[in-house]
Design a protein that fits this description.
447 residues; cell wall biogenesis/degradation; transmembrane helix; transmembrane; alpha+beta; single chain; signal; Beta-lactamase
């Protein structure tokens, strides 16, 4: 059977054709005009023990709490502003269901129809008291699980999207690891006691922040009441998260309790454009954990705020175009930071460096990078920049600073020089062979 052999094919390619063959590949690999995806660059963080703390964080200045473990996160930046035993493992209880809901929304649709199994309906309360074979769409089931902490729903979701509880638990652990929750191990979807079912306050903050990226999840966890209309049981569900009723600006999330986990709580609130998320674990009573959460959130809102240094789409420079006009250059990503209140936010100098290898660019083409420095000259972030409209240059010169094109040019020239040397060496060998007399093969050996 014939097999394609690139080495053999290239043997017959002339050196000049080889240059022409690889030049486009070289320019494509060096080209800065790639498709950009909007992201967010976070600055003013000081990583410690795998946790992205805000610079200057001092937990000893915060209020004393009873809960054995807790973190407070700026939900917009992911920066941790407070931590108490953030990486110590605890039983999560029903805040486990945050991950269960996250996977249901990730892999399912709100109109999916689920069927309750005997295993699901046999789960202990809290539950929706469904009967085996009862069917319901995912959306009302999520309301039942996140407001009323229904254990039967959690198992029903696990069996539907995972095939079994054990396989769904594997999916939960894989998702946790992907989110950076490396101290987490789930064995069930509802948080019922199991010595191997543990997580940490920091890991739960990562999981909760990821879940809050789903608009439907946000909508459900801040809903106070929901009418459940099941086959065997109908009820007006009241959200078990008392912070929704007591704490101004609360936007969710979830409570938990078992005899071994004690009280657990994940709660988020928004004030004046700032959003903070608190995770608390292992408190004796519901009243005490809510008081702890209130104290931590109050302190966070009083002492920290989210600052946008550079907005995605913000004009950061201009390129000279034809007809004596200019085209705006915008930041592809945002640069954000969590900063202390009461202190002047750091000021940043911006420096755009362009990389231009074409005289025409489509709207949205990358043209360089924006470097963000602090006042001491330290580089804080590098953000791709792109043209806001199509661009036709009158020349390859534009306003601002430019990346040198000498590197790709030098590579190309080096390649051409090597090929030319190869061609010259081959020509010399050919001429030498033509000048040397031909010796019969038989006479090349002594008899």
């Amino acid at each position: 059977m014939y097999q394609f052999n690139m080495r053999n094919r290239l043997k017959n390619v002339s050196p000049l054709r080889m240059v022409l063959l690889f030049l486009p590949i070289l320019f494509i690999s060096l080209s800065p005009f790639s498709t950009l995806h909007a992201e967010q660059r976070v600055i003013n963080q000081s990583p410690r023990q795998g946790i992205a703390y805000v610079q200057g964080e001092h937990a000893n200045t915060w209020p004393s709490i009873i809960s054995q473990a807790a973190v407070v996160m700026d939900m917009d930046t992911g920066t941790i502003v407070y931590g108490k035993n953030p990486n110590v493992k605890h039983y999560p209880a029903s805040i486990t269901k945050i991950m269960t809901a996250l996977l249901a929304l990730k892999y399912g649709h709100l109109t999916d129809e689920l069927t309750a199994s005997k295993n699901a309906v046999d789960q202990p309360a809290d539950k929706l008291y469904m009967v085996p074979g009862e069917k319901a769409q995912l959306q009302p089931l999520l309301y039942g699980m996140l407001l009323d902490s229904a254990n039967d729903v959690a198992v029903e979701i696990a069996e539907h999207y995972g095939g079994s509880v054990s396989h769904f638990a594997q999916m939960m652990n894989q998702e946790a690891a992907a989110l950076g929750a490396t101290h987490t191990h789930f064995v069930n979807p509802n948080g019922l006691p199991n010595p191997n079912h543990t997580t940490t306050a920091y890991d739960m903050s990562l999981i909760a922040r990821a879940a809050m990226q789903y608009p439907e999840f946000r909508k459900i966890v801040q809903t106070k009441y929901y009418n459940w209309k099941g086959t065997a049981w109908q009820a007006k569900l009241v959200n078990l998260n008392g912070m929704l009723f007591d704490y101004p600006g609360c936007i969710g999330l979830k409570t938990g309790f078992t005899s071994v986990a004690h009280e657990t709580l994940v709660v988020a609130a928004k004030h004046h454009g700032d959003t903070f998320l608190a995770v608390l674990m292992d408190a004796p009573t519901d009243g005490e954990i809510r008081q702890d959460a209130t104290s931590l959130l109050n302190y966070a809102f009083a002492h920290y705020q989210t600052k946008t240094v550079v907005k995605a789409g913000q004009v950061v420079g201009h390129l000279a175009a034809d007809n004596q006009t200019t085209v705006p250059v915008v930041a592809s990503d945002a640069v954000v930071a969590t900063v202390p209140k009461g202190k002047d936010a750091p000021t940043y100098s911006e420096n755009v460096r362009y990389a231009l290898t074409a005289t025409h660019l489509a709207k949205g083409s990358a043209v360089g990078k924006l470097s963000v420095y602090d006042t001491s000259g330290h580089l804080l972030a590098t953000v791709p920049v792109k043209v806001a409209t199509s661009w036709n240059a009158s020349s390859l010169q534009a306003q601002g600073h430019y990346w040198p094109l000498s590197i790709p040019i030098a590579i190309v020239l080096t390649l051409i020089a090597r090929v030319l040397r190869m061609m010259l060496a081959k020509r010399r060998m050919r001429r030498r062979d033509e000048l040397e007399p031909t010796v019969p093969f038989a006479n090349s050996f002594e008899s």
